[in-house]
Design brief:
elongated; mainly alpha
Length: about 140
Amino acid sequence: MPAPNTSGKRVAPLLVGTLVAIVTGVLAAVFGTILQAQISYAGDTPLPWGAVLALVLAGSLAVVAGLYSERVWATAACGVLTYGLVAWTGLDVHNHLLIGWSNHETLPGPALAGAMWTYGIAVSTIVALFITAGGLRSRARRA
């Protein structure tokens, strides 16, 4: 009697994890970049509340990727893809949504928001990894 075919049991989670990481990473990059441009001012002091919400969005979508696919690496892949897309967008000199830190003298608010969003993705991804790992551990204990 031949051994049962288990290749489908290994390939399906890989495909699901990859697809979910790509979709959530693209969503986080697009909507996060739009959201980070929202800034309020208290006098002359910029309050980049959009960048903070964009980081929460990116971290939340990374957690969704990991918990949905039940793979911690999907969380990391989502974060890496989000950062890669945002960094690539930042290379466009005609981009008016993501202002680089080199413009902080003339546009301090947008430059601060852009820097917070671009470099904060790493922090939100690390936090998302801890949350996902804890969620998957507790899910495994209940099963």
